[in-house]
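Hi V.,

You were right to ask for the full record rather than a summary. Here it is.
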Amino acid sequence: MTRIGYLGPKGTFSEQAMLESLAIANAGQSPTPVELPTVHEVVSAVQSGEVDRAIAPVENSVEGGINQVIDALVHDAPDVHIIGEYVLPIDHSLIARDALEPAEITAVVSHPQALAQCASFLRRELPNARLIPSTSTAEAVQTVLASSEPIAAIAGSAAAAQEGAVTIKPSIADHESLETRFIWLSREPAGPPNDGAAGKSAILFSGAGDGSPGWLLDCLSEFASRGVNLTRIESRPERLQLGRYLFLADIEGRVDVPGPAADAVSGLEAHCQQVRVLGSYPV
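Predicted structure:
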């Protein structure tokens, strides 16, 4: 039976994304969910073989890339492939053990991403409340329920309903169109594409000449000259010395079949010491 890792405990947005994505895939299987305590361990569990697949948040429409996941993939999971993605709308609520007035709340517990996504609300409505980070939004709800103090959590309504908590205020995110992109991970690459199916690839590159004027322009010209669109690009420290970076990009098209995307990545190798395909998959 397929073991699927996700950021636990039950009630996290990761669990919601997993269940919704599996329902859409309609694989006709009954996988075994495996709760893991951190997103780094979600990625590591795929690398070690503890789970067969996993789902992890990689990008948020407000806060950008999830660095813990990106760094785990880049530095600690050389055998892990991205095989798919799923975009989940996020709706945060203010949750407590008992009915509270906002003025009574002394602290707010949640995942750092959720705290950041509700920062304006917190400054406006709860300016004196301490902000306490947790490893997940669902764990934040459990922390609040276990405390006798007048504290609250930021989490989804599913976590509140599952734990029997009280929703003090729904929909508190600073942006209505809040979304998180999750990626599916496996030690096996995605299967071959269906004819005409849309595809996407994630790559990283770094290397020779990256301190020279125009180096990044030369790299990106390999895509532009072939009409290959980049949907995302960002940099992360290479962990060698200050000022050295890896570049990560998502591009339209699959690089595991002949075509412009594959040709662009081949051309990129002329400018770089390292080019690695993190995944090429259907969308």
